[in-house]
Amino acid sequence: MNIEQAREFLALSRCLNFTEAAEQLNITQPALSKHIIALEKEFNCRLLDRNRRGVNLTGPGKLMFQSATVMVEEYDKVKAAIGELKAQVTVRLVGDLQDEDDSALASLTAVVARQNNLATIVLAPACDDPLKKVLDGEADIMISYTDPKYLNEQGLAHVPFVTRSLVAVVNADHPLATRESLHWEDLRGQTLLKFVSDKTNPAWLQFERLSESCGFQPKSRAVPASNNFEFFSTPLKNDVLIWKSTERNLGLLLDTGRRIGVPVVSEEACLTSYAIFKQENREQLEPFVQAVKEARELLNARKPHRQG
């Protein structure tokens, strides 16, 4: 008898009605009957008397009721205790969470992890080299744009955190401005703005890998920039600015600068931030990964409401 069979038998024993018990358990009445018959076969005895007047517990059934009650109570106690123990695990997060997409998912992940007794997630103090903080054991996970190939070469574990679609921003008189959409390979021969900063360099690595997969090396014009004002105020000339389509200020950039945003629709064309950690900590950090999945599902479920 497993724990679910015990719960089903208890529900039926308390109300002595198959239909009512099935509704409480959110299963069908035939399924409940099948499970009870299987339980009687397992113990080779009748647990219930079924007749026109109703259902009653037999002698063995009363004994089973007592044992199943203890079994379920002890199971729930152990499960709750393990949950509390797991919640005592603290995951230290480090990285630039100024990006609103990363910040939203990280915040909801912390809530989900705590509510589900998975872990307690805290934000480690900011630093100039968050990856070193992870390697030195001063933080557990870094959230960052970076190139998965580089992480593999460094022997670091990583899972996708937030994946964003891309948009190509060009001046209104640019040849690409008339396109409704484009694929990454359409950027072959175009000059892309390459913002040079600690924040944007890892993202550029992803663009380089994407170009290599399409069989070309991206042409670029380097522009020193450290904040959104510099990103958005840089003259495009005849070049192309690749940016995430979820950028909150993207509409402002397009409205005031006589610029056009063309969606990049290639399935592989995206900008992804990663949760990065040491390989030996993978099992320990599995609760964090699980919380991220649940938080992402919650955010995705809310998207239609935000759009409406």
Automatic annotation (TrEMBL):
Similarity annotation: Belongs to the LysR transcriptional regulatory family.
Asked if the keyword Transcription belongs to this entry, the reply reads: yes
PROSITE patterns from the entry?
Answer: HTH_LYSR
Q: Where does this protein have coiled-coil stretches?
A: none
The HTH lysR-type domain covers 1-58
- How is this protein annotated for GO cellular component? protein-DNA complex
Tell me where on the tree of life, at the top rank, the source sits.
Bacteria
Tell me the protein's name. Answer: DNA-binding transcriptional LysR family regulator
Task: Could you list this entry's UniProt keywords, alphabetically sorted.
Answer: DNA-binding, Transcription, Transcription regulation
The organism named in the record is: Parvibacter caecicola
Could you tell me which InterPro entries the record lists for this protein?
LysR_HTH_N, LysR_subst-bd, WH-like_DNA-bd_sf, WH_DNA-bd_sf
Pfam families named in the record: HTH_1 (PF00126), LysR_substrate (PF03466)
GO MF terms on file?
A: DNA binding; DNA-binding transcription factor activity
